[in-house]
Specification:
This protein is mostly helical and about 110 residues long. The protein has helices at about 1-25, 30-45, 55-60, 65, 70-75, 80-85, 85-110. About 5% of the residues are buried. Keywords: Cell membrane, Hydrolase, Membrane, Transmembrane, Transmembrane helix.
Length: about 110
C-alpha cells in the first residue's frame, strides 16, 4: 500500500505538470514542470518526504532499465550521429568548459 501511495503522489505531480504544460503558450517538458512542482511541494512541507521515499528509491534503483529504449532508438539515427559527431563533441566540451569557468568565477566571488 505504501508504494501505491508513493507512486500516486509522484504521478499526481506529473499529471499536474502535464496540465500546466498544456496551458502554457510555449512548449515546455511536462515532466520537468512536474518535478519542479514536486520539489516545491516538498520544500513547502505540503508533501512529506516519507510519502514518496520508497517509490522514489524503487524508481531510482531501476533507472538504468528506463534508458534501454532510448539507446535502442538512437541506433536508428546512427548515420546522422556519425555525420554530426564533431559538432556534438565540440558542443559538449565547450559547454563543460563554460560551466567550469562560471562555477569557478562564482565560487571566487562568493568566497572573497
Amino acid at each position: 500500500m505504501k508504494l501505491i501511495r508513493d507512486f500516486a503522489v509522484i504521478f499526481a505531480c506529473l499529471l499536474a505538470g502535464k496540465f500546466i504544460a498544456f496551458l502554457l503558450p510555449f512548449s515546455f517538458p511536462a515532466s520537468i514542470i512536474g518535478l519542479l512542482l514536486l520539489f516545491g511541494l516538498l520544500s513547502a512541507g505540503l508533501i512529506r518526504l516519507e510519502w514518496i521515499l520508497a517509490g522514489g528509491q524503487l524508481i531510482l534503483r531501476h533507472m538504468a532499465l528506463l534508458f534501454i529504449p532510448v539507446a535502442a532508438g538512437l541506433l536508428s539515427y546512427a548515420d546522422i550521429l556519425n555525420q554530426s559527431i564533431g559538432f556534438i563533441l565540440f558542443a559538449s566540451f565547450s559547454g563543460l568548459v563554460l560551466i567550469l569557468l562560471a562555477v569557478g568565477w562564482l565560487y571566487q566571488r562568493l568566497t572573497s
